[in-house]
Each structure stands twice: as structure tokens, then as C-alpha cells.
Amino acid sequence: MGQMVEFASNGNTARGYLATPERGSGPGVIVVQEWWGLDSGIKEMADRLAAAGFVALAPDLYHGELAGHTEMDKAGELMQSLPPDRAGRDMSGAVDYLVASDATTGDGIGVMGFCMGGLLTFVLAALRPDAVKAAVPFYGFPQGEDQPDYSAITAVIRGHMAEQDDFFPPAAAKELEARLQSMGVDCELTVYEGSGHAFMAPHNALGTQDQELYDRIWPQATGFLHEQLG
């Protein structure tokens, strides 16, 4: 079980859920929430990362607000009303917290995000290339006109995308992969045949959870983070 902690966020204070491994230290990983908020599912993913040997911090980007797993309209409203600059500051502050922590070991910080958090994983990698060395986005990526400066990214990216996804179409994921690779970014975005959006989610809010796929991907994702971070 983790605990809520506070950290500095560009002159303000932000909060997040911190989970640490049993041995008390490990490489640091930022966990970025889905559109529901900092809910039980994201806390569980942070706990699972801690069980895999990481110091995992999930910043509360909605500052205490949550949408229930049947409240898709509310989740959409919370996501649309999230100030991008504040989200960037809070994620960056979370990175600084992990970098400064005595519990954090290894070379650089990793980022893992889901849905909206997958999109923000790319944003944070571009925002903090000085610290973010590995990124694992799940079924989410930037689209449209408001995209980060991908040329700033130094992290290695290994993303996991759904084939049946109206939110983040697989064709667009492969287009982004090709774009990043053409810029020299080490990026692979894998689309899993037959999968639906949120296939990793512990809460199974969309009815698309795929345990077999989770069992296959999770060791790959954590192994990749250990390879990159220590």
C-alpha cells in the first residue's frame, strides 16, 4: 500500500500517490492517470509497479476531483477542463520529487500512462528530457494541432495500443510512430490484435479488460523500464 504525499509544483503544491517497493528503494516511475482521475485503478497500477521494484508516484492532476467508472460524461468534462499548463507543472513537480528522493535509484525517471495518461506520457517526455529516460504509454497519444515538441524527446518509448479504439485509432498511432522514428526518437507503438481501449485497466470500467494480454504485456513493460533505468 502506498500513501499520499505533497510536492512542489512551480510555486504551488500538488499531491500524488506514492508506492515504494518492499526493499525501500528502486528506479523512479511517474504513473499518469486516466480521465477518471487518481482513482483506485491508477493507485493499483502504482502498487503493481512498486511490487516490481519501482518507486512509483501518480500525481493527482485533477486536484481531488474524480469521476466514477460509470460517469463517462463527467470524466470527459474533467479531462477537457484540465489546464494543460497546470498538468505539465504537476507532472514536472512529480519528476523533481522522485529525482530528489533518497528512495530513487537508477539512471533517470520512467513514465507510464493510461488513456489520457498515455497522451500525457508523450507530453512529459518532451517537457522533461533532462530526466525522463523511458516512456510506456498505454492506448493514448497526442492528436490534432496541440502536440508537444517531439524533437526534444530523449526517452526510449515503448507504447501499447488497442486495435479497436475509437478514442485513439491504431492507424494514427502508427503514423505517430513513423513520425517520431523519422525524427530520430527510439519509439515503438505496438497495436494488439483484437484488443479494446483500456485493456489493462484493473477496474474494467469499459468491459474491455484482457487478463491474458495484461499477463503478456506487464512483464515486458516492467522489464523494459528496468533495462532503461536500472
Element pattern in H and E = EEEHEHHEHEEHEH
Overall shape: it is globular
Q: Architecture, according to CATH?
A: 3-Layer(aba) Sandwich
Number of separate strands: 8
Number of domains: 1
Q: Main beta sheet: strand number and arrangement?
A: 8 strands, mixed
Class computed from helices, strands and strand pairing: alpha/beta
> Helix content range of the residues, please?
25-40%
Name the CATH superfamily assignment.
Answer: Alpha/Beta hydrolase fold, catalytic domain
Strand order in the sheet with the most strands: 1-2-4-3-5-6-7-8
- Quickly name the level 1 CATH class: Alpha Beta
What does this entry look like structurally?
Helices cover 36% and strands 28% of the residues. By secondary structure, it is an alpha/beta fold. The protein has an eight-stranded mixed β-sheet with strand order 1-2-4-3-5-6-7-8, with helices on both faces. The mean pLDDT is 97.
Name its key features.
about 230 residues, alpha/beta, Rossmann fold, eight-stranded mixed sheet, 8 strands
Draw up the topology in text.
Elements (H helix, E strand, L loop, with lengths): L2 E7 L2 E8 L6 E7 L7 H12 L3 E5 L12 H10 L2 H17 L3 E11 L1 H12 L4 E7 L17 E9 L5 H13 L4 E10 L14 H19 L1
Parallel strand pairs: 3-4, 3-5, 5-6, 6-7, 7-8
Antiparallel strand pairs: 1-2, 2-4
Summed up:
With 230 residues, the chain is α/β, with parallel strands linked by helices. It has helices at 40-51, 72-81, 84-100, 116-127, 170-182, 211-229, and strands spanning 3-9, 12-19, 26-32, 55-59, 104-114, 132-138, 156-164, 187-196. It has an 8-stranded mixed beta sheet with strand order 1-2-4-3-5-6-7-8, with helices on both faces.
